[in-house]
């Protein structure tokens, strides 16, 4: 793959407005001493993070990562090669914090943080979906997402936050979710879903909201209330809970699983967003916490939630927290729920591993459960299941092209191009096995594919939620 | 010449050891703020140790990422290790067993080293993606090692180094009783080049091996589900 | 650098503030001409069906301060325009850029954010 310099140099997200910056405690415009402050923050961040320190020091420029990023493969812009993206930060770090960079900058590729470099930081730290596919192929395991997260936090801290992510975090705090869906609208939406499911199945499946004393608090991305195919996944969770007789509730206070604090690289924002979940769980007195289909939310939940906010009050008999897919998987394995594959007879499905589930989390108790749990469920509920090409699945899965805080319209060119490696793999199985649907278990993946499928000649609704497929095949007992 | 060499070798070994110690010490002080393992990772510390050991010995990740880079860099690193072991012949008379066993293959090993380095250099020059991210220092590291290797091959081919004398010289370094060496310009350059390399090692990208062992994406077992 | 919010929409001598993506900053600025101007810029002529959707969005927004979820919208469309139109495919035919986003813009409502 050849490089095309500056191929996507013009693709940038909108800057956060003064109000959107102020809402998160960031400066409202580029501060006068931005250069000095950015360099100071960079030094601080490298000192405070071993992952970043290794990223600054360990790269031997071997080039193994250069053709692994979906954004590079889709755009051929050399700054979308992970090593070059890291170099944007590394070159400035070297210039200011290493002997050779201070005195022999030309020798070691050390560079000043000037206007042009600042522009590149803003552009290319926002052309990384933090999916970490490159890290899988890096001989020393350098994590590019740590670099782009740190870069974004520095940018926001000198007055250059990104509109989309900042706006979303602001809404989580004022409305409880990324969408800005207020409690009455949420209640109305859920009521509508109860009617729909009753009409479709004849079973009075409930979608409880803010019910004190429920066993399980389900925290799910707000897209599950709002968009398709997400909402079909939510219906699937509700059906499973109903059939298994689990008492559960949603919360209007924590009506969002997503945590964009991760995307903007701010430990403080991540914690602030995560705190609502603890508060809601305590308020409702639940014993278990279960997350819906959201990739990065699960990454934060499984790896960090306990440390960030403490989940000691939950029932220790269950993992704290759990993912809806592992809950469903266990119910199926223990025979509590059963599937009728014929319900999905007309579907030939394949599975898209979401980056944050595949490479940053686990499901169930066996190593690699993040790969086997969703596949087991699909194979149990579908007659026709097909795998995409190996280098594009499991740990090597390609990002959908919209993750990491890039799911915004002004980046559509990048999103379309970045989806191309996944689209190539999907097109192959469509041609060879007549695949009709690709299943995903992440709100971002689902929205991104709905948006870019038409660009590749597919119907927007060829992407399905995992629990939509599971829910459709679930055998429901008509209850009184 | 022997004084200069003795001095250079002593200083560079000191820099290598102290520098390595310093870097490792700094790394252990560098905090791991979040669990960021690239999953799935082994679940036990022993599992992590084995995984990192395999990585260190056969460069498994690079094998998955890029065959050509893997073949050249693995060849280079393997031959570098063998070259170091062959050089252990200068530690004692008779030569240590491992050196004696390897000595007949010196030419093969040297050529392996050079071919590996040339392959890496060619990749850096010819693949535009890699060229784009290469700094002058990246080329110079390769050229430095190539130069040292070339000079070493000249010495080896010309038999211009008296092994007995050289061994006494090396032993003298450790005993603090420095022994004289016959003047030899090629040898001087070969050893000085190696000294520069030893000094560079802890303070450059050449230190990537130890850094891998400290990288939180690889070095931490997955915590059990609580 | 991407421009900050200083974009405008000109409708019959009136200059209305919009954000970078063309959504009205002040809902009060909305008029039928606003929707028509926006649609014309996209090469779309607004049919009665388009207007039904716009009206549904606005009514819901008045009640709930948010655009309706897709399920609610399709159900409402179904009630007004017939069961065969109670699906998102129909809405995508009307608003190919996505009913929530494109129709909200024409309706003078803010863009839905988040993972949608």
Task: Describe the structure in brief.
Chain A is mainly α and 480 residues long. Chain A has helices at 18-23, 34-48, 50-57, 70-75, 82-97, 99-103, 105-108, 115-124, 133-137, 144-157, 163-175, 183-201, 223-226, 230-244, 267-284, 295-303, 305-309, 324-333, 355-360, 369-381, 412-418, 420-433, 443-452, 466-473; strands at 216-219, 248-249, 288-291, 322-323, 348-351, 384-386, 437-440, 463-465.
Task: Tell me what you see in this structure.
The complex is a heterotrimer of chains A (480), B (226) and C (116). Chain A is mainly alpha-helical and 480 residues long. Chain A folds into two domains: 18-161, Fumarate Reductase Iron-sulfur Protein, Chain B, domain 2 (Orthogonal Bundle); 170-473, no CATH class. Chain A is built from 24 helices and eight strands. Chain A has helices spanning 18-23, 34-48, 50-57, 70-75, 82-97, 99-103, 105-108, 115-124, 133-137, 144-157, 163-175, 183-201, 223-226, 230-244, 267-284, 295-303, 305-309, 324-333, 355-360, 369-381, 412-418, 420-433, 443-452, 466-473; strands at 216-219, 248-249, 288-291, 322-323, 348-351, 384-386, 437-440, 463-465. Chain A is globular, with a radius of gyration of 22 Å. Chain B is built from eleven helices and no strands. Chain B is mostly helical and 226 residues long. Chain B has helices spanning 2-29, 45-58, 60-65, 67-87, 97-102, 106-126, 128-132, 136-158, 163-175, 185-200, 208-214. In chain B, helix 1 packs parallel to helix 10, helix 4 (67-87) packs antiparallel against helix 6 (106-126) and helix 8 runs antiparallel to helix 10 (185-200). Chain B has a single domain, classed as Fumarate Reductase Cytochrome B subunit (Up-down Bundle). The mean pLDDT of chain C is 90. A two-stranded antiparallel ribbon of chain C has the order 1-2. The longest helix of chain C has 17 residues, at 48-64. Chain C has helices spanning 32-41, 48-64, 70-81, 88-94, 99-106; strands at residues 7-11, 14-18. Chain C is globular. In chain C, helix 2 crosses helix 3. Chain C has five helices and two strands, in the order ββααααα. In chain C, 47% of the residues lie in helices and 9% in strands. In chain C, strand 1 and strand 2 (14-18) form a beta hairpin. Chain C has a single domain (7-106), classed as Arc Repressor Mutant, subunit A. The two termini of chain C are 25 Å apart. By secondary structure, chain C is mainly alpha-helical. The chains are: A mainly alpha (480), B mainly alpha (226), C mainly alpha (116). Chains in contact: A-B, A-C. The interface between A and C is large, with 48 and 29 residues.
